[in-house]
Amino acid sequence: MKEIKIYDSKQTVAEEFSVFFKELAASHKTFNVALSGGSTPKIVFDYLAENFEETIDWSRINFYWGDERCVLPTDEESNYKMTVTHLLSKVAVPEANIFRVQGENDPISEAVRYGAVLAKNLPNVDGVPKFDLVILGMGDDGHTASIFPHEIELWDATENCEVAIHPDSGQKRITLTGKVINNAAVVAFLVTGGSKAEKVKEILKEVENYRDYPATLVQPTTGDLVWFLDADAAKEIN
After folding, report:
1. How far apart are CA 211 and CA 149, in angstroms?
2. What is the CATH code for 7-222?
3. Cα distance between residue 41 and residue 18, in whole Å
4. Percentage of the chain lying above the pLDDT 70 cut
5. 20 close to 26: Cβ distance less than 8 angstroms
6. Tens digits of per-residue pLDDT, 137-154?
7. What residue spans of the chain are helical by DSSP H?
8. Measured between alpha carbons, how far is 214 from 170 in angstroms, rounded to an integer?
9. How far is it, in rounded angstroms, from Cα 174 to Cα 100?
10. Chain centre distance of CA 177
11. Residue 222: pLDDT band by 50, 70, 90 thresholds?
């Protein structure tokens, strides 16, 4: 089932998604989530830490990442570092519940290692690791996780994780592949800002070049897909 939720501002998206996250986590004994980087998750993490530190049982949540840049965990570009700064350092999450991508390691070896971590720790459905929630962003180019249009074939890779290359910087990244993303019980897009409006329209209305964008391929096979949009990102579909 696909659901589209539109809110007046990026801040409201963060607040409403935080409530959604709290309720979803509370419905699971153990809650396995794949996190996203980016500006909107940063606001979400701040809001969760400030408002749900006491009301979410953080000890029952296992944190993974949907993608990570191949940098040190202390690097300003690290999704892990951003999450620690804005959320994990502020709530009572056991260290054993945090499964970071080791971006400082050899990328090919790390993609294999992290894929094995998922296979070992997550429930297995149809031979594929199953997350309770995968949080995704979307770039201005229609990329999601770290699968970019020029490497859209990575979506259909047979492995759980792959090495992706940013089209402009050439930076290597580790990313979940499509089979893991689409095996999740719930996938939530957090998309804000007017620069995303054109791609949001193409993907949600299935017009123009929508087939060229990895974000189009997010279609959970047995789960729910929820788009959290602010008014700017949704302005072309209203």
Report:
1. 10
2. 3.40.50.1360
3. 10
4. 100
5. no
6. 999 999 999 999 999 999
7. 10-26, 39-51, 79-83, 107-121, 178-181, 197-205
8. 18
9. 11
10. 12
11. confident
